[in-house]
Amino acid sequence: MAPAPVAVSPLIKFGRYSALLLGIAYGSRHHKSLQKKEDGILARKEQAKAVEEKKKVAAEAGMIYRNAVKV
């Protein structure tokens, strides 16, 4: 037979749940800060992609114009 379970002190229970809640709060706050950084990175990537796309379109338009002038 297994021994009877031992009653856990309310102070220990309080400490465990306090640590759990503090960990959840810290994780949430940390996640928000990382999300802000990631949003900034993604915005810069999208801007760079748009600029590259405009350059590509402008270069293609210039090529089309140059080819039309040569003919």
Description:
- This is ATP synthase F(0) complex subunit e, mitochondrial.
- One of its GO terms (molecular function) is proton transmembrane transporter activity.
- Keywords: Acetylation, ATP synthesis, CF(0), Hydrogen ion transport, Ion transport, Membrane, Mitochondrion, Mitochondrion inner membrane, Transport.
- The chain has one helix spanning 10-70.
- The chain is rod-shaped, with a radius of gyration of 30 Å.
- It is built from 1 helix and no strands.
Poorly predicted regions are none
Secondary structural class: mainly alpha
- Rounded mean pLDDT is 90
Q: From N to C, what is the helix and strand string?
A: H
Q: What global shape is seen?
A: rod-shaped
Distance between the termini: 99 Å
Give the beta-strand count: 0
Q: Give the radius of gyration.
A: 30 Å
The proportion of strand residues reads under 5%
Counting DSSP H or I runs of 4 or more residues, the number of helices is 1
Largest sheet: none
Q: What is the share of helical residues?
A: over 70%
Main location: mitochondrion
GO molecular function: proton transmembrane transporter activity
Family: Belongs to the ATPase e subunit family.
InterPro entries: ATP_synth_F0_esu_mt
